[in-house]
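Translate sequence into structure tokens.
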Amino acid sequence: MRLRLLTLSLISAMTMTACASNVSSQSNLEASKASEPARLQQSEQISKPLPKVDPTTKAERTGLAERADVQAFITKTSREKNLDAKWMTDVLNHTKLQPKIVEAMNRPAEGTMNWGKYRPIFMTDKRINDGIKFYNQYESDFIRAEEVYGVDRFVIAAIIGVETGYGQNRGSWKVVDALSTLAFDYPRRAAFFSGELAAFFQILNENGGDPFSYKGSYAGAMGYPQFMPSSYLAYAVDFDGDGKRDLWNNPVDAIGSVGNYLMKAGWVRGAKIAEQVSVSTSNNAYQALKQTGRLTPPKETVAQLKNAGIITNADPSAKVTLFEFEVTSSPKVDEWWIGYRNFYAITRYNSSKLYALAVFQVSEAIKKGVR
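Result follows.
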């Protein structure tokens, strides 16, 4: 499944970076379920004026809400989230299912993406130069985010850069269409996306506006940082104090929200992220200690890795994870890296180790360019 998610991310990154990690950021979504929704007062939701369908969007009536499964979703969600069922019905009756989204989700993996292929997608002169400009434009907000949340401000910038090219590609799908398609016409992940659709209705109720004006990726990820709806509810913040959490049009809110996300993912203020290491030619015991399978917090010490053949000057007592990154398969060329707790925090945003290393390297390049 991870390979499929990574492949879908890369397809999008080459054409529209807004989707770069939208599908694969589902680790991000799972993590959000453990956090209480920020700034959301459910008792006040139903008393707000409900956002109406704007006729200027020309959303034709589709009758989607007449389906039995959609009716069941409305009944359940309106009751559990304290939302108006008639309003939800009206929105869903103007929602259009998009078969192309299902096709994209079902697209078979096209080979294995290694570091040698992945890195050039994100480590480009344009992305670095745009990152430097973006950072300089909002420098005071980045500095404040680092002070408030303890997260490296250049990592925050890099994540927004990897996700959407600093907001240049935020997605063109109507979020309600995308999430409804996956909730009602994609059985394999229906439960997951039904939860995201329910969360999106909470966002609509909180923010107001035309439900069909909200745009995102084909997987329903939204705004500058490509948060899924459940992550928005859990981590999005009103960082500029205007009374609204706006990740679609407000880069300042996005900066604060990414910082808040990584803080809650366990970021350690001022700590290291990752370092490249060498391997011994005579002791290959390190092979048994490299990361495989699901990513977990660091558990081996540098001293243990050194005894297994890793060559590094890192603090022997530090806990890290050993990663092998394939550059080429023939001839076999690898890079070896150790990831600290903050590297793991980045993988809570997107579960790919390739993503995390790309974010780290983009952040370092932006930092070098700014200074």
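Note: The beta strands are 173-174, 215-216, 274-279, 300-301, 310-311, 319-329, 332-339.
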